[in-house]
User: Fold these one by one.
Assistant:
Number 1:
Amino acid sequence: MSIRKTYTPWTKEYGAETRAAQGDGWRCPTTGAVPPPVSMGATFARDEQYRTPAGLAYLRDQGTPGYEQVEDVVAGLEGGSDALVFASGMAAATAVFQVLPAGSRVVVPQTMYFGLTKWLLEFGEQRGLEFVRVPMDDLDAVSEAVNAAPTALLWAESPANPTWLVTDLAACADIAHRAGALFGVDNTVPTPVHTRPFELGADLVMHSGTKYLNGHNDVVAGLLVVAPDGADDRADAISGQRQAIWERLRLHRRLTGPILGPWEAYLLMRGIRTLYPRMRQISASAMSVAEHFSSHPLVTRVAYPGLPTDPGHKVASRQMSGGYSGMLSLHVAGDWQRSLRAAEHCELFIRATSLGGVESLIEHRYTFEGPDSTSPKDMLRLSIGLEDPADLVADLEQALERAAKDTA
Ligand code: PLP
């Protein structure tokens, strides 16, 4: 049951920004409260005929009204037909790999969120998945890997954490579908504000809702979204596979229980209301920070797809609109220890992992990821927040200068 539909139905379809701001127009059906209240029930009372008023029986099975709202809204923003909320981004991403039949072959990026690579290495192989890692900016390599043997899934993340390598999503969708494989995209970093993977042929979109969707560093959450049938000719050819995996994913969540608490679902929805203005501001600030340090004597390279000099700029400009998101990495000149010292000297940039919140964060990924890390040692990952970009630039300037003095 959709509470929105029983209270103040909208008479027309509004655009994404309006849908996000008003949470798709949901109200409390009893009091009209804006926004609707958090329903904390894990179980729901049945009437004499054994029915429940909203068709919900148990939190792990059907969720709570707050799930339905956030799933409706995110499916709408992505242009998908349905969404499922999960306990974390990792719970959502690994669900996709866990519901594939044992022995399935999957092609994944060489560069992507470190945790997912680690899960594939630790558990994927053990579960009989054959996975092949490819450089996603080399379409010949992607095609060769996908066509080398029957492949169930091609996975992409663009721009990819933590080097912001750009993947041509439309070309990858084509490669996957020609080979009869599904195409899944981690859209955490660009968000639907900047990239809409279904319009480029994706079958599944995944989000760490912990990041920009929530946007306040106070919730861990994840989401999966499925493409609508008929959205794209290339994707239509495998709509049967897509529907089948979606049913498996719903069952997986129901039976294994990687679910979000009702309060966290509420906070996630609250964050999504301001997603569009946050992303506009964050992407503009990230661009000005990137531009400032792109010709700086203490920085050898800035990795940011918004810079015309970035190797991914051309493709990013084609598939991203309104900005390039808020993630960039600085490669610090000199001994690599200098990058660690620079992070130490920051005052506004907080030395913390994660990304996508209102507070700017800085991280030496190599140190965080440990000995298995493939992150360059001279690299500092920045998540740009909502502070004044001039303050952020000044904070980095003084930190780099002090680090250069320390290590001179
Ligand atoms: N995908 C990307 C791009 C991420 O950066 C992260 C976490 O940093 C994840 C997925 C995993 O999300 P979560 O931490 O919510 O499990």
Note: The longest strand covers residues 327-332.
Number 2:
Amino acid sequence: MAIRILSTHLVNKIAAGEVVERPASVVKELIENALDAGATRIDVMIEDGGRKLISVADNGGGMSAEDLALAFAPHATSKLAYEEDLFAISTLGFRGEALASIASISHAHIRTRQRANDGGFEAKASGETAEDVRPCPASPGTTVTVRDLFFNTPARRKFMRTVNTEMGHITEQLTRLSLPHPNVAFTLTNNGRQTQNLPSAETTAQRVRDLFSVDLAEALLPLSPRGHDVRVAGLIGTPSAARGSGKWQYVFLNGRYVRDRLLSHALREAYRGLLEPRQFPVAFVFLEIDPGEVDVNVHPTKIEVRFRNGQLVHGELLAAMKETLNKADLSPRVSFAESNDMGEPAGDDEQRRQSLREAMADFFKKAPPTQPRFSFPEGQSPAPHSANASAPAFAGQYTPQPQPQLASAPAMGRTVTPAPPLPRPAPAQSPAAIQIHNAYLIAAAEDGLVIIDQHALHERILYNEFRARLAGDAGRLTAQRMLIPETVDVTPAEMATLDNHSHLLERLGVEVAPFGPNSMAVQQFPSLLAERGVEAGPFLREMLDKLAEDETTDPERLMEDLLEMMACKAAVKAGDPLTQAEIDSLLRQSESVDKASSCPHGRPTTLKLTLKDLAKQFKRI
Ligand code: ADP
Ligand code: MG
């Protein structure tokens, strides 16, 4: 096989494969050029999610006729003249390949005018051809128009997703580019409808408010500026503003959005002990480093970087966040529901204690102590020996129960003062089990004993129940109408996501409707979740995060992921004291459930010790 030098067109097309993954990549490159040109206003117009048209208009410096003649040429850039510049980059672009690559796979057009000139110039390029520069009327600045993206690369074209998905990616790029430039005004329009309007703002907090929500902007703590070689500034979320995915962690290095393991690690580390394992802090962090200390030329889209002294950057960022978190008042709120669950009032106040005792005594007069606090799964007939199962379930209601002796040991680090004598539950019928540390159940099995993780088992039971319902005649979960719809702030991309998955939501029994320009109201909600006291607002929030994070496009897989999340939310938690009736009910249900030995995430629900194991351990055999 003979060695050949590739044609310029082919080289551009190959470069395009690296730089232009989808319409959002074009938007990114064009906005970067506009920012490099000093624009203070940037308008992005899209048609059909970018498939048909992408246009970025700016009011920046513009180009001369000579510059425009070179703009579509590969490796033509005004931003890098000498080799040493490569190690001191202060502009967003510098490789000079974006316009050449984009034009090689689309019909591209540039119209530009330098403010001092009376008229402007235009040029066209497409595939292998580029037309000469021509004079034309134009307002100051540059407008780049890209039509029919991927017209000559059918493989890429096929990879384009729905308009909503592509718009989601475009919105995300706009978010990343507009956060470090709050003073620059941006708009985004798709098919004639404006989806983002970001007026010029004074502060990052204002930009966050316009991009996301007032709620989020108010839950941010400013980082006190610090550092010498590494300057750190920005805003970080309070622990209660944390999200279900790391998507809300925006880290910028010298004005460029980056993803970096070291920096994500610093974020996790700063919140250690303040968040549950699957929660991620929200952060908008801006790092400034001497450009010579970092290599941004390690990735074609420059999203990954290499630090000369990574430990220093990590250390400075961590210190800045810790300082802010230490200073802030983050004392966790003790919710009354929790103190009820503990069978103890939250404070030492004797009066409150007394009234709680009275309330408990009162309650026991009305409700039989065997009433399960969680209802039996829908459609499943209660076990025959459960006397009260047909009575209405006291979902989420206060049902204090005396705990078996073991469980009244100090729980969650709190000392429990002996409670006044209360009626004891009738001795449990088979299967007998006790709860320890409000987290595990220990039960006798025919040939030994089992230890059950109450949360994992309940998760499995609920998950199977959801699946059975969806596979059943109705094909969907039973929903209940919200008396007062709960509203959730959403971004345009999230609105699009909800729209995209409307069928899925319908099957899950979730109904949402727009409520003002930036929020959604939950109008219907799965009954099983409502009965378990799950709140509709936070649930929708988590579901959106899950959908945003989920890479899969397989609707079944997505459904499973959501069901797992729902089961997890609705299940009893480690730390929830259970009544004897609830324990019995859980164990009975586990007998009739498939895959009862593992939770939907694959972790075991049950550990077993056989009599033989015990005998061995005690050296009886
Ligand atoms: P790079 O940004 O890496 O230099 P590009 O291919 O993106 O390469 O752009 C090539 C050149 O065209 C830039 O260096 C710049 O001089 C010019 N250019 C592109 N877009 C604009 C714009 N919006 N305003 C002014 N000049 C621009
Ligand atoms: Mg560029």
Note: Confidence is low (pLDDT under 50) at residues 331-349, 359-430.
Number 3:
Amino acid sequence: MNEWWRTAVVYQVWPRSFQDSDGDGVGDLPGVLQRLDHLSDLGVDVVWLSPVFPSPQVDNGYDVSNYQDVDPLFGSLADLDALIQALHARGMRLVLDVVLNHTSDQHPWFIESRGSRESPKRDWYWWRAPGEVPGAEPNAWQSLFSGSAWQLDDATGEYYLHTFARQQPDLNWESPQVRAAMAEMLCWWVDRGVDGFRLDVISMISKAPANLLGFGPRLHDYLRELHEAVFAEKGLLTIGETPGISVAQAQRMTDPARRELDLVLEFEHVSLDQGATKWEARQLGLPRLKQCFARWQEGLAGTGWNSLYWNNHDQPRAVSRFGDDGEHRVASATTLATVLHLHRGTPFVFQGEELGMRNAGFTALADYRDVESINHYEAVVSAGQAPHEVLAALQRMSRDNARTPVQWDGSVHAGFSTAQPWIAVNQDHVEVNAAAQREDPQSVLAHYRRLIALRHDVPAVALGEFALLLPDHEQVWAFTRTHLDVQLLVVANLSDREVEADVPDTGWADAELLLGNLPGGRGGLRLRPWESRVLRRTR
Ligand code: GLC
């Protein structure tokens, strides 16, 4: 079994905001090509490219109208081929983000399906008659993007299911034809040279009657079928996005012997206190956060493998959410990175995270572009919530926080574009940008470079056994990693007050300092605000 990804680091490119090459204010594939030095310098192994397929862009490409081409907004198929080649020439791999749970309502399959109740593609989607009350939705399922998950289609008087926006109808994977079409499409991409797939909300492809989040009875069958038809023995990397997955389910899904997926993206550590909605934004406190990581470490220690992430295109910026994006921006961004990258699993870096980029800081509804945010605003304001409260919630949790252009330099559009970008550049780009960090050994960027190199060079970082220390400590995140005769101790101060990391075994005081995020300091286990250290000793 070729599990090369166990020592790899994945970097997510969200192309719309990465680099614009043609001056239309929208990032594109030639733009990604222009910035490959940044990725090689960082040392990442895999690029996960968010969707670039033709799309009406209702959900920024997660509404696909043709799976086998590139949207002119982003370039051409030839540009994508060139990107694959250029990445390969630099020893990097490309993982495509594919959306298999739903299509755009402009996909020819859906247009055909909605044409008539007798359409040969009718059962490619979920059509249902109105509920018992005439004209009512078939059931009470709510879309994750606000409102009912059912949309009445006047042409045939039936409703179709959409877990996300109404322009994103869910495919019916019960249909063997749908499954065959998907497998064929994925094989076409494999033949074109891609090295794997990130499978958008893959846990939803099998529906369960009581739950819109999926995990239906045939999920494992469908995954095994895809594995057999597409992934098997090709050395690909497959990453399933699986909101709501439990440790036990993840263990099954990533057990190599079951031939389903290599990695899953779980959501527990970015979830909120029980009962809170996303928009209430109540974070897990430190003890629960680190215990959550530890549970996943333990759960996938023997069988399966973890994914490690703080950020992606759906989450607010880590330094604003879990760190301190004011006085301690650099220290907290580097400490969050240290704890994440020193866990066992495959780490993910989302564009701009390696610069310590902050949340967008938008104050008006007109600043936002994301369909989820805009729908939410409209739904709750029309239900009576005060607009300023909703704007405050968007400021903390909107997905647009992650989607502002990458800050390459301090110039007017941050080096992202020569034109006004499709979404505003964060005003802090004058201070927070790649050009300012590239040569600065104390920068967030330099720290990410060191962390990625450490994973490649020190087997204990990639492979060592994990043990959490001080599980209930409110300020300190501490754990060990043990591989053969090498032991690492990670100690981090997740607060703005000095603290002594009183780990049980005192023998660490004069161990070798492998990596620290702050220069100087007193050494040992006394930690300044947001300081983190990785120590090494041989047993
Ligand atoms: C996933 C994507 C998200 C998208 C949704 C619907 O959660 O990461 O961006 O909106 O699926 O495709």
Note: The first strand starts at residue 10 and ends at 13.
Number 4:
Amino acid sequence: MALTTNKMVLHFVDEMKQLANPNNVIWIDGSHEQLEALRQEACSTGELIKLNQEKLPGCYYHRSAIDDVARVEDRTFICSKNEIDAGPSNNWMAPEKAYAMAKDIYKDAMKGRTMYVVPFSMGPIGSPFSKVGVELTDSIYVVLSMDIMTRIGQRVLDMLDDSNDFVRGMHSKCALDAQKRYILHFPEDNTIWSMNSGYGGNVLLGKKCFALRMASFQGKQEGWLAEHMLIIGIESPDGEVTYIAGAFPSQCGKTNLAMLIPPEYYRKKGYKVWTVGDDIAWLRIGDDGRLWAINPENGFFGVAPGTSMKSNPNALESTKKNTIFTNVVLTKDNTVWWEGMDDNPPRGALDWKGNPWDPDSGEPGAHPNARFTSPAKNCPCIASNWEDPKGVPLSAIIFGGRRAKVAPLVYQSRDWQHGVFVGSIVASETTAAATGKTGVLRIDPFAMLPFCGYNMGDYWQHWLDMGKALSNPPKIFNVNWFRLDDGGNFIWPGFGDNFRVIDWIVRRCKGEVDARETAIGYTPRTKDINIEDMEYYIHPGRRFNIDAVRAILSVGSVYWKEILPPVKAFYAQFEDRLPKELAEELLQLELRLWLV
Ligand code: GTP
Ligand code: SPV
Ligand code: MN
């Protein structure tokens, strides 16, 4: 039975029902009984496997199709009326053409299946910053994952009331045909249509599709920003908390930084890190002229491989209950394992494809983009105010990417405009989070290349305009944890030790430390990166010393000169939509580099 009298919602559900022709329609009220019944049903069909409830209470296992394991950027479209509004960095399809093509694919796609109606809220229920969506889907995995990743059910429809302000999300697995897989966004119609996939980023429509692509478009109209950013609070020994947001491309360390545990040296002094969000931030200008951030999500869709008691104990702890694991190793006693969890791979287990797996085979048991879907409230370091409807005020924004060379450990922009330039030239080596070749360097402005729902030139302009409206803007930094030495080893130990860089950033925000001015911005003085009590690493017996700090902070102008031509080529595509401020910043950087 319908759970609302909202005519627009009813009309949307009815229209899609006519098209996809499901056997029946079930409205998700969000009750424990209803969700429990769905879990049981999914287990009876094999869509889910119930895990060892003693070791992993409330946890389930799922496998996606073998050719359906990551976001499909080449099949993701922004279907704005005018091509120029999608911009050169997005795939575009005319809305009429996209609707017609998709209707063909959706026709009778749910025959013999159930269509679930999932009302969901991005952001805490009742926050003025929250936004509503309704996702229709024929996948129980999607319903249960949406329950973890967003707030769902009757309370969302009550919040929506009779408003038309909701995103219409349609998803069908169809036949999981990779040739007919499309993720279509119609920003002007508040509509997302996804078909022939069952992988998270393509089908959990609240996440990248809504909270970034649609929301970035809405933010441009309404004067706010939707960003691919983690949010953390850094508590200093006096109890003061400094909030920082950070944008890194997919699989470049957001979840890890969001749940960072400071080195013992800092912990003893009383420093703590609190998680507010690990992937998406919605940013608004407060009455105080500061930038305020909320995390619109309710859970973590985290990368499993590499997550261990050593690298990220808080993430691992978050997965111990009420979690859905996708494409990891399934052990004999119905628990889970993945590469990098420990040095003890299980014998007699099944790999992510469901085949018997031999750890000595040289083949990974988990897919490199295997994921866990865990409730945020499971996280031991979740901030007590993480659901505060007004959000948290940002003191700093950090950009970063995966760069084997070039980018120093950390540098600070001169001002907001220069910071927007720094964000616009983020470049990173591609990862397994999206289909396609990994390890290819690409320019990924603001870590938003696959997620900006409109012309990126206009998006840069919007960032510049936001800065003008902020009387107390966050300071903007760039970091790179991934620099390699000539032998291909990470120079910087990363993970918890990243706190040493965060500490410098916080001290910069508080005006407690000065910096060196270089061609690319401000860099720390070598003595100001605290390496007290740092462990040995990489080269056995060689301690990370002041020379190593100096090397990793170095700006390397030769390399920077190499990055300029690709940046220029990237910028050139935007023609008159490229803000002149950014063209000017690029020119200034070039001039400074030739002077050093
Ligand atoms: P998405 O969920 O795809 O957006 O990824 P993410 O940005 O949250 O990245 P995540 O924190 O899951 O880390 C991705 C990979 O980078 C994992 O394999 C981590 O182990 C690795 N990683 C994270 N932080 C560091 C670091 O400081 N140094 C090094 N060397 N690797 C890191
Ligand atoms: C990413 O790829 O940036 C993710 C996972 O966070 S997904 O939801 O698939 O986009
Ligand atoms: Mn992400």
Note: The pocket of sulfopyruvate (ligand 2) is lined by residues 71, 200-201, 207-208, 250, 279, 301, 433 (CB under 6 Å).
